[in-house]
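Quick one: examine this chain and its backbone structure tokens and tell me how the chain folds. Here goes:
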Amino acid sequence: MVQDTRKMADAEPQQNPSPAGDTGPPKGMPALKAHVIANKIDVSLWAIRVLIVLCTFGYIMPLFNK
């Protein structure tokens, strides 16, 4: 019987990095746009929550300005 002498790090084939140097998912505005398009409902719910907090803050602050 032949035993497999590879270690866990050697178990997966090694992938060569792409020649363009692209590492990982996109970042910045393209990633934000893709996330907003993919998660329209979640993004809109968070936007409403932030708007509610800002409006509440704007409503309460004048009460402390006597």
